[in-house]
Amino acid sequence: MTEFNRSAIKSKAAAACGWNFIVLMSRQGKIRLSEFFSSYTESQKKRILRDITGDVLPRQAKMCNIIEKGEYKFIYRRYASLYFVVGAPVEMNELIVLEQIHLFVEALDGYFNS
């Protein structure tokens, strides 16, 4: 698959769900998966991952799951020992994103049969 086709598929995926990126991170801060649906430079990606680690990990369990950061929001949910963090545009509805995260986790759970 050419790089042009991959970027076209990624931009269609971003338009379909409205996410800029998704990051799966352990409670210790180790990044397990990061997928960016918009174009970012490597330094921007590293800054975003550093911001996520610094903003999400120290938060208490009873705190809000939404963090506004610049032109996007971090919307996250914790399942077992993993954080599922989505970067969404500021104007996007947070409750819809939380539901999308939950559906994504259910799909992964069903696929891996655990």
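The above is record 1. Record 2 follows with the same two-line structure.
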Amino acid sequence: MTDAPLMRSISGLRGIAGKTINEAVVRAHVGAFLKVLLTPPVPTGEKLIILGRDSRTSGPEYSAYAVEVIRSFGFNCMEIGIVPTPTVQLFVTHFRAWGGIIITSSHNPIPWNGLKFVDSDGIFLTPDKCARLYDLASLHGSTPQWEPLPEAAWGRCTPLANAWRIHNDCLLHLPFLPLEAIRAMHLRVCIDPVNGAGGPPLKALLEELGCEVISINLEPNGLFAHTPEPIPENLGDLSKAVLANRGEMGIAVDPDADRCVLLDEHGHPLGEEYTLALAVEYMLGVRGARGPVCKNMSSSRVTDDIAKKYGCEMHTTAVGEINVAQEMGRCHAVIGGEGNGGVMLPDLHIGRDSLVATALVLSLLSHARLTAPGMTISQLKASLPQYDIVKDKFSLGAVPPARVDAFLAELEAQWRASGSRITTGDGLRIDNDVEGWWVHLRRSNTEPIVRVIGEAPTRALAEHWCRHFRELFERALFPAK
């Protein structure tokens, strides 16, 4: 996808490094971000920006551009190098910074890079601030919207190595984590950080928790050993490592380490939906937390079932971390996340965090072993409600978004008339409560694709309805095929 357009959304911007993401694009968007932060009311305290990146090879170049722009606005910059995206989010609140920038393209392949922007509250920019940022960046391309300050007024840049150690330390100081019980398990864990930012912090966290760690693709060099999205078809090497080393579980994270996916002792992926489910089960069922739980429209109903079991409300939002984060703040949720392996724990910070997910899952397993010694990860998953979810996608090519939206409107009318339960606001979700299946159809925020996600009591039923809607889409959008 070397000709992919620049993607701008509530999840930040992404494009092909050196093409749709280049020096001018980085400078324009970093400057626009700072202009947004300077719009009253402004935060109090030091004018500080936290800057981190994943391990992509274009990262150092783009980081240098970002540092120069940040300093030229009179901001100080704490440059923390290769770190998970949630480390930057945590640092923004920990150091009371005005904001944060992560140079990353998350799970996109090697040729891509991008920018994520964090507000002073440690969560991503709201949709209205994103819109202002993108408008300013576009205007700056033709008519300058700002000028650098005189060099004497520039801020300073302070580098901080191994910043992720502070992240790990803050996590391990959460008072409800049963650290000694986890350490007593002496788990053998295989990890695949896909040569991204998560390798060193994940390995160090597990070792601190008493685990024997077998690593593949550990070095954060940006040369991803396989397609970096942590979905089953990309986890073959980790599965083999679990089997070859008699691992008790496997953990895969994406290049910026905000998503965590688990494999069982047989090398089988649990399904990324079950990361959040296990974390919610620990917080509600073991810790005894009570309050709302938040997830997005594309996430499994297993989390709904767990929340209902403990008398907690489930709040559902549009897809996108910022949407979940905003709702978590509004309703004072005790935990939330997205069904892509993203767990959000406000006790630490409100952002998807693979390190948090790892700690909560190991906490649940250690508790289960108090009454069932030797319980495995596969058995732990089996103790939860069981659903099969299917996640499909197809490229839009040159199809304009308006055509996708028009077809979704046609489908909405048809299925609403049939008596199905309809949810809109982020594509179209159709729920058939009689047969127990649902399908969510939506344009991606981060790639020029349509996602088709469906869930049912059986895989065959979920696959049937995903295939049905994908074929409808393709006939409508690509009639010549």
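The longest helix spans residues 459-477.
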